[in-house]
Design goal:
With 193 residues, this protein is mainly alpha-helical. It is built from ten helices and four strands; from the N terminus they run H-E-H-H-H-H-E-H-H-E-H-H-E-H.
């Protein structure tokens, strides 16, 4: 019993160290705050992969609107519906990007809990491969740039223009103008060790 408690305390201490290091990279003023727009990058650098909706919920959880002169984060109750309605145009979250700062003291316990519970784990390699294979109905082992853009901007949780450009720059082979998805998957899978 004591061994298990010691292991958990060690894990918590390690998580706190990793969270602090990741947070400090974006704490440009060295005042234990980061711009709310950097939280997604911090969370992803810690090996978590929340969706944009989950990330928005996390920001709302750790953000104290209007405190200490910080601008309010306006999150309409129908934000998810607005994003879906505007999927063919720029996403609502980009149009109304939150402003303000998040304090380390608020972020640390929430992020520690996320890491302890292993929430927002990356999708396993075999699941990603199966997803690409579903899209590749001809079983060629690749998708063309146009096919990829269509799937990523018109289906499910659509990518923004910026996200699409970022993915294309990493995924598309300029010579063939396509994505060999097995190579792409092996490049983007996170080693959890």
């Amino acid at each position: 019993m004591a061994d298990e408690k010691d292991r958990e305390e060690t894990a918590v201490a390690e998580f706190h160290k990793k969270i602090k290091e990741a947070f400090e990279v974006f704490d440009h003023e060295s005042n234990n705050t980061v711009d709310v727009r950097e939280i997604g990058t911090i969370i992803r650098s810690l090996g978590c992969c929340p969706s944009e909706g989950e990330l928005h919920d996390l920001i709302a959880e750790v953000f104290t609107p209007g405190s200490e002169g910080t601008p309010r984060l306006h999150v309409p109750a129908n934000a998810v519906e607005i994003v879906q309605v505007h999927s063919d145009s720029q996403s609502f979250l980009e149009e109304e990007e939150p402003t303000g700062y998040i304090r380390f003291e608020k972020f640390l316990p929430v992020m520690t809990e996320i890491l302890l519970e292993r929430r927002y784990r990356p999708i396993p390699e075999d699941v990603l491969l199966r997803a690409f294979e579903v899209l590749d109905t001809a079983k060629r082992g690749f998708l063309t740039k146009d096919e990829l853009i269509k799937y990523m901007t018109e289906e499910g949780e659509p990518f923004s223009q910026e996200e699409m450009e970022e993915m294309l720059s990493a995924a598309i082979d300029p010579e063939s103008n396509s994505i060999n998805y097995k190579d792409y998957i092996s490049m983007m899978v996170i080693d959890e060790n």
